[in-house]
Amino acid sequence: MRMPWPSFTQPFHRWVNPIALRFAGGFGSLVVLEHVGRRSGKVRHTPVRAFRRDGVVAVGANFGAQSDWVKNVLAAGGYRMTMRGHRLRLSEPRLVPLEEAMAVFPAWFSLGLRYLVHTDKCLLLTVVGTQP
């Protein structure tokens, strides 16, 4: 499989992410993932696309498993996500192959991850609580 989302696009995220955070979490699949930095201990907010089915949330690791936010989530004991106006408490993160997460994603999104973004890893997260 080809490399995930090209790394040359990462510098653009320094100005795209703050804009995306203004719109994330209210509706659609753009959500705010709140996690704590492994080294800094600072609370971080990262806009990601996520989908929920029953008690599981799936997020594509578009820049691969070596992304800081992926490492932070895997290292954390707990984290939160704002999705469609609700704050979710999440736990038990698992880095899995795209094929294992496809049941949570809509078909169009799975195809995009596979053939456009070339993502081969995703995070599956367990929902342990919800606040309006």
Structural overview:
With 132 residues, the protein is an alpha+beta fold. The protein contains four helices and six strands. A six-stranded antiparallel beta barrel has the order 1-2-3-6-5-4. The termini are far apart.
Helix content: 25-40%
Q: How many distinct beta strands?
A: 6
Instruction: Report the C-alpha radius of gyration, rounded.
Output: 14 Å
Q: Treating each run of at least 4 consecutive H or I residues as one helix, how many helices?
A: 4
DSSP strand content: 35-45%
Uncertain spans: none
What value does the average pLDDT take? 86
Strand order of the largest sheet: 1-2-3-6-5-4
**Main structural class:** alpha+beta
Give the overall shape, derived from the CA principal axes: globular
